[in-house]
Amino acid sequence: MAETLPVASESPAGCKARAARNVLGQVVLPGEELLLPEQEETDGVGVAGERPLRLNAGMRSRLRVVCGPGLRRCGDRLLVTKCGRLRHKESGSGSSGGIYWVDSQQKRYVPVKGDHVIGIVTAKSGDIFKVDVGGSEPASLSYLAFEGATKRNRPNVQVGDLIYGQFVVANKDMEPEMVCIDSCGRANGMGVIGQDGLLFKVTLGLIRKLLAPDCEIIQEVGKLYPLEIVFGMNGRIWVKAKTIQQTLILANILEACEHMTTEQRKQIFARLAES
Amino acid sequence: MAAERKTKLSKNLLRMKFMQRGLDSETKKQLEEEEKKIISEEYWYLDLPELKEKELEKSFIIEEQSFLLCEDLLYGRMSFRGFNPEVEKLMLQMNAKNKAEEEEEDETVEVDVSDEEMARRYETLVGTIGKKFAKKRDRANYEEDENGNMKPIKTKKMFLKPQD
């Protein structure tokens, strides 16, 4: 391209910050500023040149708004840091203003506290295991962080095992730490993932799509044959079925369904159900 | 022997507890305030009144990096058609837990035993458990009727002082 496109964030006077409410569902680019609902009212009024009488001039209603992944706080506005569609969800308790986030797509995982991930044990050193989760550094997993583990009773974890656990510490300043136990001390399905099966990697957006409550893909897959799947939020999926061929078919379907339309998917499932 | 000239004591020494017992309360307060001033001046703070005003007035924005709050996602382990029964049980448990947190319904739990029957049982229960801890003399009070119901407990025989 001969000409460079004007960067939106270059001239603050040139581009106007849009109201977050109007942009829901549309594509936003990094560098855009979004106004929260309360501010856009006052800004609009200020432009008109008149101010209505207000009983409480200084105080504004304090709404607690949460800005989720892809957004950052910039003064009293939201600054977009990833490109994608803007989404909003009203919170259950009416007091807080809900949560805004950007639905973006990426393959690289950044550890986040509370996420359940699949990790591969790479090293065993003293009291901790080093687990590769796909981030910038391996996470550490203490051997006491398993259900029913004590100093005498060590868990049976070898190098190369697959672990399903969640992060307790995950920020940019510290090494991520994960555990296979919840706050009550129960495993809840976390721990070493069993023998056999196949581990493969997909994009992070696909995982979230597959884990949505009303996902048709999973429902259709579940009707094919007996199988087991584990989804890690770091983009890793582990599947297991009775035969190797079935496992491979399953892996191929899950990898391909990201780019298929609904009709193509239904055709493929129909063909599989026949054979 | 009284010294003719006061020996010069250092500031730190004067600040020690045993030297201050003799002082009166005013000088004590003064010394305390001076110490507090020294300590608070060592802390750094932002001298930007405009920023503070802005923080107070505007709405609170909290940054979260987790997708768990944004979308309700199902539990990550799944099993279909009975491949792994434990995981299937877990699926029901975890997904039901998510739903239970969202929905705030008051459901009346179905009871196997009605309230009246519970009350009746408790009446007799006091008697049967009481029998266990009663002394041999008192056990005579816990006699059973023909129907198997507990007789009312007779009043204990206390010592009656002679009126003479």
TrEMBL record, chain A:
Q: Where are the transmembrane segments?
A: none
- Subcellular localization, per the record? Cytoplasm; Nucleus, Nucleolus
Q: Which GO terms describe its molecular function?
A: RNA binding
Question: An example Gene Ontology cellular component term from the record?
Answer: nucleoplasm
Q: Which UniProt keywords apply?
A: Acetylation, Cytoplasm, Exosome, Isopeptide bond, Nucleus, RNA-binding, rRNA processing, Ubl conjugation
User: What is the protein's name according to its record?
Assistant: Exosome complex component RRP40
Q: Name one Pfam family in it.
A: KH_6
What family does the database annotate? Belongs to the RRP40 family.
Q: InterPro entries annotated for this entry?
A: Exosome_RNA_bind1/RRP40/RRP4 (IPR026699), KH_dom_type_1 (IPR004088), KH_dom_type_1_sf (IPR036612), NA-bd_OB-fold (IPR012340), RRP40_KH-I (IPR049469), RRP40_N (IPR048541), Rrp40_S1 (IPR037319)
Start and end residues of each K Homology domain: 197-244
Domain spans labelled Exosome complex component RRP40 N-terminal: 26-105
